[in-house]
Amino acid sequence: MSKVTIEKMPKRQRFSLERKQNLYGYIFVLPIIIGFACIYLPAVIQSLKYSFSSIEVTSEGFKTTFAGWQNYYEALFGGENFLRTVIESTSGIIIQIPIILIFAFFMANILNQNFLGKTAARVIFFVPVIISTGIIAEVENMSSMMDVYQSAEKMEIGSASGASNIFNYASFANLILQTLNNADLANIVLTAIESLYSIITSSGVQMLVFLSGLQGISTSMYEAAQVEGATGWEVFWKISFPYVSPLILVNAIYTVIDQFLKADNLAVKFIAQRLASPSTYAVASSLSWVYTAVVLVFVGVVFLIINRMVIYQD
Amino acid sequence: MKQINFESEVHVDNRNFIEKLLEKLAPKKFEGIDWDRWKRKNLTLAGFGRFCWAIVRAVLIIGISFMILYPFVVKIIVSFMSTNDLTDKTVMFFPREGSTYFIQRAVMNMDYWTALINSIWLSLVVSIFQLIVSCLAGYGFARFKFKGSNLLFVIVIVSLIIPPQTIMLPLYSTFRYFFGGLDLVNTLWPLAIMSATGLGLKNGLYIYLMRQFFRGMPKELEQSAYIDGAGPFKTFVLIMLPNAFNMMITVFLFSFTWQWTDTTYNSMLMPNMTILSNTLFNVVKGVEDVLQQQTLLDTGSLLMIAPLLIVFLFAQRYFVQGIERSGLVG
Questions:
Q1: CA distance B277 to B303
Q2: DSSP code for A113
Q3: What is the CATH number of the domain that holds A128?
Q4: Using CA atoms, how far apart are residues B221 and B238, in angstroms rounded to an integer?
Q5: What is the dihedral sign for C-alpha A97, A103, A107, A110?
Q6: Which residue would you say has higher pLDDT here, B12 or A73?
Q7: Nearest-by-Cβ selection for A25 from B149, B263, B325
Q8: Higher confidence at residue A114 or residue A2?
């Protein structure tokens, strides 16, 4: 009798502990499971159903009839050139991603150093994380559009597109034009300043994440490198870079999602406009599923490319 | 037995921000410079390199800070201008007459005080629910290996990728006819329910952040609590949450501000409620002049940001620290 219990005891105990753990895990994620099962999944299925049907607006409300792949066909090859919009915005994003990542990494390195006013600089650099979102960003876009409209009226600056929110943009542009004495050059300088502003405002979260990684490196490693006589350049490439390289992956994926789903993204605007009116709703919902697939593929590609370059510690 | 006093070993900094600043600004005790040592240290090639780098760094940081702060300074100045100042060509920066006309007008058009209170209430409810859900779920994903946990986590990440506009109409009809007939549109309920079930704005990101944070905490903490007889919930509440305080502040701030400025959910699920993100565009009501419209928009967005900036200023200490200590690793 006693032998049997000794043999059985450990097995049974482990099993029950595992089971207990499973149970507690489910309890912790229960809110998410409920939300997903009761609200999110039905909404997703409904939206997919809309994308496969044609919608008629009648006096009683919406009337849907199954229409097969027709919406998708119209979305992709119809007259409205959705594909071109996607390709246009995507090519812009492909250029922006490495710039944002490099800038965020560089600035995180600088903010990680010791200098006068470090705290103030950190606070200021993270303000765009909070400000450049949602309706505030919309207002900025609007007023910068007014700026361009005014400057185009008053001076002949040409296409200074998406001006940053610089007060009296016209006079600022005029100043640069006068100092450089060359319209083409002035345009290039102005465009550079504007894109720098957009890069600064869209790399705040990434900077935070990189900074968190850099703070995690123990100082003894730097000290050892210094004793061995490593230069700053070597320390950067041999210690800082490998250590935070897993974060490059996190940041790259965050940047991709953030850039693709921004409210002022051309494709998002395109879809949102058509989702707003009932007559184009069905086509628009198929458009947005196509777009989701594009973003998913893009995230996958970025993951595969960057995952190879990441140096894992373990 | 010798009693170990932990309090005495931990240095607790109780001074407030101003005291610290004063100490930093106060002139250090001058002890004379060891010139030989200074020369050996700084009058070399490496010292020169350091000097150049310090200058480049200063230029970069000051320049970028300027770019970030400039629009704000301009907005503040512009909102104190009078209508004459706006059109006066000789007024470059500082208003000559100055008035609070635009501020008063913006406050009136936006229905500012009502909208402010409603917005605070809405953002508080949503962000507290989001915080609770992401703490729970983050801990669940970080420490328990249950069947389907990986799949569920992938779903959480994918839900970040699906544009919210896609499922907006089905969501709208869900809440328009909730449980077969309850009309919840234009109340707080839709967003409260969604954030309590992990479907709020960017909730996947918060869950991911909390998960990474809890993964980085040493397991010994919990094991000792388990040995002492605490259950998982007691351990979670008494051991894990107090350690995650900074990270929780960070997540709370993110969700509070992003909810504050959100338009996608707000305009669809509560289009008629008096909240700041709905009333901001009313600010140009009854004004024809483009320049004045723009000034009103600037003033309005400044009024909308102001509460956020105050919250941010008070919380920035935890905000920067929280992320730094999160131990985020791929």
A1: 11
A2: S
A3: 1.10.3720.10
A4: 11
A5: positive
A6: A73
A7: B149
A8: A114
- Asked whether residue A12 falls in the same domain as residue A99, the answer is no
User: Does the beta-carbon distance from A209 to B328 stay under 8 Å?
Assistant: yes
Provide the residue count of chain A. 314
Structure tokens at B129: 């629910």
Same domain assignment for residues A143 and A43: no
Strand-pairing partners, residue B178, are B182
Which phi and psi angles does A11 have, rounded to 5°? -60, -50
**A30: domain range?**
2-51
Q: Where on the phi/psi map is residue A68: left (φ > 0), alpha (ψ -120 to 50), or beta? A: left
Say what the pLDDT of residue A145 is.
59
Q: Give the rounded distance of the alpha carbon of A258 from its chain centre.
A: 2
User: For residue B273, which phi and psi values (nearest 5 degrees)?
Assistant: -80, 145
A221 contact partners, CB below 8 Å, separation of at least 6: A239
Higher pLDDT, B244 or B136: B136
Question: Taking the CB of residue A150, how many other CB atoms lie within 10 A of it?
Answer: 17
Retrieve residue A268's tokens: 């998002």
Task: Write the secondary structure of A258-273 as one string of H (helix), E (strand) and C (coil).
Answer: HHHHCCCCHHHHHHHH
Indicate whether A67 belongs to any domain: no
Contact B174 A140 (CB under 8 A): no
Mean pLDDT of B64-85: 84
Q: Mean pLDDT over all residues of chain B?
A: 82
Higher pLDDT, A299 or B94: A299
Are residue A17 and residue A133 in the same domain, yes or no? no
CB-facing half-sphere around the CA of A121: CA atoms within 13 A? 21
B264 interfacial to chain A (CB closer than 8 Å): yes
Cβ neighbours of B324 in A, within 8 Å: 211-212, 215
The full set of domains in chain B, from first to last, is 109-324 (1.10.3720.10)
